[in-house]
Amino acid sequence: MNSIKNISLTFLLCGLANVLTACGENFSASNVSLGGSGSGHQKPPNPTGGDSIPSHDEKDTIYYVKIPAMNNNECMGMQRNVHFIFTDSKQAIPVGSTQYLPLTSLQVEIKNTTPNYIFERADQCQPFKIQKNDMVFARSPYPHCSLEQQSVQVFQPYETKIYTLNLDFINAAHQWDVNYLVSYGSELPSTRSQWEKCPPLPLSFTIQKRKIPTALEDELQQPTTEQNLEATLP
């Protein structure tokens, strides 16, 4: 009985009434697409649950990332890909280029390629797992829930949802691994529902840092753009 309540409560909180768009504090969603045109942009808020990512006060340091290739896979008719974009323009960043970290975001695009409704379940309401060495952190577009609860998203036939994950919380030079971990089902969730646990959708990238030259430090007091740091990065 408790498991039924847990599934039902989370499912209803996320808006069953309108075939679900994602919900959660500081969460935005717009222009959810059907039939492959347009896109729905959804931005997870700050990390929720578990330990917080440690902060470092290094005002004379900048962080940058070498952009890896897009990764993609398919599970139960759901096409998924993850790649880097410029935060402001939402345009894809050229693979192999080096970018100032605060100007970049990760974009996860999930498309239902079937003519059927597909339900996407995230255990503990946390589809995003971020890892540095043995330390694992979670980011989620959904309200925090307990270990026994799940969040459920509904994908209409041929619908696409796009999640944008800001990386401004990363402030340690290291290799980082991001995984999107969910299960899919074709029936309205219940205790008898069959879920297919999909392989992770991963992306690994290395963050590096360097000291800011005095002249550049003054420039960084001004608003940054996608171009004005390009010449300064290694």
Describe this structure in words.
The protein is mostly beta strands. The protein has one domain (2-232). It has two helices and 16 strands. A hairpin with a 2-residue loop joins strand 4 (71-75) and strand 5 (78-86). The longest helix is centred in the first third of the chain and has 12 residues, at 2-13. Keywords: Signal.
Mean model confidence by pLDDT: 73
Biggest sheet descriptor: 6 strands, mixed
Q: Could you spell the SSE succession in H and E letters?
A: HEEEEEEEEEEEEEEEEH
Number of E strands: 16
Query: What's the overall geometry?
Result: elongated
Taking all Cα atoms into account, the compactness measure Rg is: 19 Å
Within the largest sheet, what's the order of strands?
1-2-12-7-5-4
Could you state the oligomeric state of the chains shown?
single chain
Alpha-carbon distance between the two ends: 58 Å
Number of helices: 2
Number of discrete domains: 1
Low-confidence stretches: 1-40, 45-57
- Strand composition percent: 35-45%
Q: Determine the structural class based on helices, strands and strand pairing.
A: mainly beta
Helicity range of the residues?
A: under 10%
